[in-house]
Amino acid sequence: MAEKQLVYRQSIWTRITHWVWAVALFFLLLSGLQIFNAHPALYIGQESGFEYPNAWLIMQSGNLDNRRAGVTTFLNRQYNTTGLLGLSAENGVPTDRGFPDWATIPSSRDLATGRVVHFAAAWIFVFCLAVWLIASLFNRHLWRDIVPRLGDLRNLVPEIIAHVRLRFAHGRRYNPLQKISYAVVLLVFFPLMILTGLAMSPGMNASWPWLIDVFGGRQTARSIHFIVMVLLVLFFVVHIVMVVAAGPINELRSMITGWYRADAEEDRK
After folding, report:
1. Are residues 57 and 122 in the same domain?
2. Which member of 107, 198, 199, 229 has the greatest number of CB atoms within 10 A?
3. CB–CB of 16/120 below 8 Å?
4. Averaged over 163-167, what is the pLDDT?
5. Is the pLDDT score of 23 beyond 80?
6. What residues contact residue 19 under an 8 Å CB cut-off, 6+ apart?
7. Are residues 183 and 120 located together in one domain of the fold?
């Protein structure tokens, strides 16, 4: 067996913000789907089109093969999504709704409560991001472990191949694939979620009207917000799969206690 060394890999700030983000994003996702269900369609531009078609995604009920069904229209192509999108059971009764009741907070139609939960979780999320950013600048975690360097880009393809083969190196620092994915999530996706969320706020529209122009319209900002949400969900799924494949005990220990069992230097050469 290769020799292992127990190293202190995750700081207290990284661990706390990691778990707070996990909880906040859970409530943001499910309450966000509740808000989306109030109008389950996405558009490009400043406003939703009634006299002109600018929708690229619509979830609704309709008739397919002479039966009531959930119909999702994506880029003008229709798909039968009965039971999941457009039409799903609510208390055993087929109901028109974008996402099913098990995917929203609260499960019943309650836009007001969904907005309260969403905004509360959003403030926690923003505060946590600010704490992480300040701490990561002071302890150099951002530059040392997150921002990719030229050598990371050179080693990206071999790292991807190793992951596909389920061959994981347990290093003291993040590998190139981790650094790039974490950098995209923390420095691109998270700020985009915040800024597009602000762009949809009427109060912010009055204070920062230029923010809407940056994203090409209020409805475009809403679409970007939704797309980033989907990408974050995909990242979460891949993240969990990689944690399980790389050794869940070791990975969880590092995010709870900070200590990580890494390969010895000579084993990684």
Report:
1. no
2. 199
3. no
4. 82
5. yes
6. 255
7. yes
| Domain extent for 179 | 4-37+110-268
pLDDT at 112 over 90: yes
Q: What share of the chain is helix, strand, coil (3-state, %, to 5)?
A: 55, 15, 25
Q: How many domains does the chain have?
A: 2
d(CA 186, CA 135): 14
Same domain, yes or no, for 64 and 155? Answer: no
3-class DSSP state of 68: strand
- Amino acid letter for position 55: A
Q: How far is CA 141 from CA 81, 147, 148, 156, 176, in A?
A: 44, 9, 12, 20, 15
pLDDT at 51 (0 to 100): 65
> Are 75 and 168 in a shared domain?
no
Which value, in Å, is the radius of gyration of the alpha carbons in the chain?
22
- 136 and 15 share one domain: yes
How many other C-beta atoms can be found within 10 angstroms of the C-beta atom of residue 16?
14
The residue ranges of DSSP E strands in 34-92, in sequence order, are 41-43, 55-64, 67-74, 77-80, 86-90
**Which pLDDT belongs to residue 269?**
39
- Looking at residue 123, the DSSP 8-state letter turns out to be H
Same domain, residue pair 68 and 118 = no
pTM: 0.89
In this structure, are 28 and 93 located in the same domain? Answer: no
Distance linking the first and last C-alpha atoms of the chain: 16
